[in-house]
């Protein structure tokens, strides 16, 4: 008779947590998405995902997530390159890493209020630019309460998240590669074009997908800044499950299932690209 392996006992809380807060809710969503209000099996909720208003909400969420992910990926990569490979003192990286760890988790109502107080119509920066330099942001076309303005708010937590993820990949660029390229007469631009960026490409694309998934599921920041009239998928889902007029929980489950599929595909591609990047940098 074999001995009982008690080593699994240490990871039992993790599996219990994963089942209660990840696997269980997803199974519940799948069941609810294929039921009507009486509990009978139906495809009506899945078919309803093709209605114009829901398709428009998915389109809006995808476009917003793509833009914020692209902005965060480019800005975060340039920032990380400057901090890590730019020859700055070691304490600068420590300061940016600490700030990024906090800022990447700063979202919701506090973030929306911070931007309103800073770049709102009577925000601190808006008033200072108007009174000291004669620059009227809102008269020039800028509007915090718009698609681009919301993307700018997302950049606050997307950029530091990109910095945290891409920093180890930049550390993985071997000095020997740069030295060999310089010995062979390559310029800085040629090094990045032919060696640096191709090696980093899987990591950068993976980070972009992770930022996309991070933005796609954001609710509190959008709701606090734009209100319920900005129909991204999380707000439409909230209206279906908790609303008084659009109350249809089963359609809400179908919307949530659609979000799970999109975010699952994004995260799966991210893991594939990350594993490929790790092989390149071994």
From TrEMBL:
Keyword Membrane: yes
GO BP annotations, alphabetical order: transmembrane transport
Pfam families: BPD_transp_1 (PF00528)
Subcellular location: Cell membrane
Residue stretches making up the ABC transmembrane type-1 domain: 54-272
Residue stretches spanning the membrane: 6-30, 66-91, 111-129, 141-170, 190-213, 220-241, 253-273
InterPro entries on file: MetI-like, MetI-like_sf
Keyword field contains Zinc-finger: no
Protein topology in the membrane: Multi-pass membrane protein
Record keywords, A-Z: Cell membrane, Membrane, Transmembrane, Transmembrane helix, Transport
Gene Ontology cellular-component annotations: plasma membrane
Annotated signal sequence range: none
Sequence similarity: Belongs to the binding-protein-dependent transport system permease family. CysTW subfamily.
Protein name, UniProt field: Acriflavin resistance protein
Organism of this sequence: Fertoeibacter niger
Organism phylogeny: Bacteria, Pseudomonadati, Pseudomonadota, Alphaproteobacteria, Rhodobacterales
């Amino acid at each position: 008779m074999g001995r009982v392996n008690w080593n699994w006992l240490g990871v039992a809380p993790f599996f219990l947590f994963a089942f209660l807060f990840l696997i269980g809710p997803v199974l519940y969503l799948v069941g609810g998405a294929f039921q009507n209000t009486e509990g009978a099996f139906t495809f009506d909720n899945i078919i309803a995902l093709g209605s114009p208003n829901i398709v428009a909400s998915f389109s809006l969420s995808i476009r917003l997530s793509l833009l914020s992910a692209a902005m965060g990926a480019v800005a975060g990569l340039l920032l990380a390159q400057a901090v890590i490979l730019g020859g700055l003192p070691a304490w600068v990286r420590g300061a940016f890493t600490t700030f990024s760890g906090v800022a990447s988790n700063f979202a919701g109502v506090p973030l929306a209020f911070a931007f309103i107080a800073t770049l709102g119509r009577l925000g601190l920066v808006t008033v200072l630019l108007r009174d000291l330099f004669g620059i009227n942001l809102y008269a020039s076309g800028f509007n915090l309460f718009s698609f681009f303005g919301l993307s700018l708010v997302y950049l606050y937590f997307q950029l530091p998240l990109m910095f945290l993820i891409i920093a180890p990949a930049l550390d993985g660029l071997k000095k020997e590669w740069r030295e060999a390229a310089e010995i062979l007469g390559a310029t800085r631009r040629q090094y990045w074009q032919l060696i640096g960026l191709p090696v980093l490409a899987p990591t950068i694309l993976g980070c972009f997908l992770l930022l996309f998934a991070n933005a796609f599921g954001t609710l509190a920041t959008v709701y606090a800044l734009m209100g319920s009239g900005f129909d991204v998928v999380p707000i439409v889902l909230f209206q279906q499950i908790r609303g008084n007029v659009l109350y249809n929980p089963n359609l809400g489950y179908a919307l949530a299932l659609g979000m799970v599929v999109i975010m699952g595909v994004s995260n799966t591609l991210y893991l594939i690209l990350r594993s490929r990047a790790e092989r390149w940098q071994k």
